[in-house]
Predict the structure.
Amino acid sequence: MRLFHSESEIESLIEKFNTCTLPLEAWTHEAHLAMGVWYLRQYNLTQAMLLVRQRIILFNSSVGGVVSFERGYHETLTWFWLKTVDAFLDRFGREKALLETCNAFLGSEFAERERALLFYSKELLMSLEARAFLVLPTNTSLPF
């Protein structure tokens, strides 16, 4: 997992994401998660979900990312990752420095790329229904 070197690196990522100037190749798993940490330090979970949904769709459209029934914005994964980050922040603390918080999250088991598959079947997670609407996990023993 790639960690960040400075708070300014994270702030620049967020600024470029928000203004749709981030290169598509920089929109990595780590960038998604750092964005979640940043938003959840600024907003509550409901506000963050609304803003992140809007901004991911706008970003994907602006960089020519594929937006289709099979690719693009994913409602259930967005909810899952924001809930995971929110639970981590509740335990870790929201008052710590952004760099320390992002890197602690990225270095934790909570940030593992395949984590959602511990709680969802791959078939359900990749379904059109899960992309369009929030689908609750099949394994209800979520860590939050």
